[in-house]
Design brief:
This protein is mainly alpha-helical and 347 residues long. 77% of the residues lie in helices and 0% in strands. It contains 6 helices and no strands. 1% of the residues are buried.
Length: 347
Amino acid sequence: AGILREKQRLLEQRESELNARTALLENELRQARMKQYRDLPSLDEPVSLPQFGREAAAAMGEAGIDLEQPTRPTTSVPRADTPPPATPTGEHVPFEWTPFDVEAARSTSRPQTPAPAQEPASGDVLIETDLAAAARQAEADFWREHTRQQPPLGDISWAEDPAANSPRVVNTELQAEYEHLEQQRRLHRQREFRLERREKAIEQLHEEVTTLHREALELRLAAEQIWNELAEEHPQDQLGQSLTEIRNKLTDHYRMANDTLARRRDELHQLRAEVSLQEQRVRQQRRDIQLWADRRYDEIEARTVKLLMRERELDQIEGDFNRQTLEWQKQREAFRREIEMLTKKAV
């Protein structure tokens, strides 16, 4: 029973930690959404440029404004059967922008799957869930009210300068405004994607917490049932003695496991010391071999130099010997001729 209570306490502690982490992540998610909504100027639908261009061209044509050149005063006399052109009044009907409901879009974009049946949660989890839902609803209401108060981006005032009333100028300004709005929308989609991923992580964490809580409740129920069955079958003293024996066995088991781990740890430390010693020996042998190789290389270089010098000496000696041989042959030939001359004179 004490072990089960300890496990139950650990499970409850872990559950409280997971609840705290879930609340912290939901708070960060709400802050990120509020910051995102504050950064965006508006979430209205994009302007349809072709439709606006056609309407502007039709209005300019009815007003008698040339679409290629700025308006200039003309002296032409109007025809009798032609109705007078409509004069621009300076009033411009703004575009009607439909506010973008983020919560509705998110609910429609997600697949409508039936919610799985969950186990009854505790009072703290239900209160936290209600608080989170109320905070999200208040956030959505605030943002919808904020988008209603924003002025429409399509309300473009017409300047009194005729050049400023040109369709090209209007289309250029509208194109720049449209590109800026599209860029803001891309950033919004990226942030929305990141927030959805974080929301999925929070939902997964909440499911894990719920599963852990359910398992803890099941474990507590099973422990209570087993305890009641044992209490009915055996007396209280015998149960206490059995629990004491089981606790002693568990203590012996954990002690033996700890002793085994300590022995393995000592063996690992010893092996680590031996490996370090062998590594030092290998490094020392490598240094010795490198020094021996360097010495042998120096000796070979010195012997090579000596052999080259000896070869030069032998070449010089051979040259001297060849010269002496030639001189001896010349002297021998001279002595032979002299002997022949003396022999002829003697005869």
